[in-house]
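Q: Could you fold this chain for me?
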Amino acid sequence: MIGQLLGDRYQIQECLGKKSGRQTFLAWDQQAEQQVVIKLLSFNREFVWDDLKLFEREAETLRTLSHPAIPHYIDFFEVESPQVHRFALVQSYVKADSLANHLQAGRTFAAADLKQLATSLLEILVYLQSRQPAVVHRDIKPSNVLLTNRSGHRAGDVYLVDFGSVQTLVATEGETITVVGTYGYMAPEQFGGRTSPQQICMAWEPP
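A: Sure. Below is the predicted structure, expressed as structure tokens.
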């Protein structure tokens, strides 16, 4: 799809990731003259309706959020072709590397770095959980945390991305329980499909 124009506006530049039924691309927004991220959900043989439910929820949630450390919603539209039908979600692009990539490259963090990183993440979570209804990310892991502008003893500016597993806390009576997240990083209650906002203490100090 490199070079293809989607929505008469977004030109695909590079594939950033791919998994079952989903693709993520870096693209050039010809209207705003800036790089953006496009997520595509395909209706193929691997498609299940829960995928569409989560994809639409991600788009609707990002539309309501406004925080400098969270990608901004830009567009949502259908992409039709003779081969496959797709939905596209467009969001702002953050030029930064993930915490997972930093760790794999052997980067280490001092206590001051870790405190600043944890505090920045907690501030994002405080914002999400203060929304009405509250928003629970449900997939916080190193690959979904981006770091940029590192200097001195600062871990850098912290961003939280990939809201594909997000849950909004609204009335769920009669709703099908969907268990999402990444094993090894999921809170225990997620295994039962029941997540809720938790009280966050901002006075944390490293041991």
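A (continued): The chain has three helices and eleven strands.
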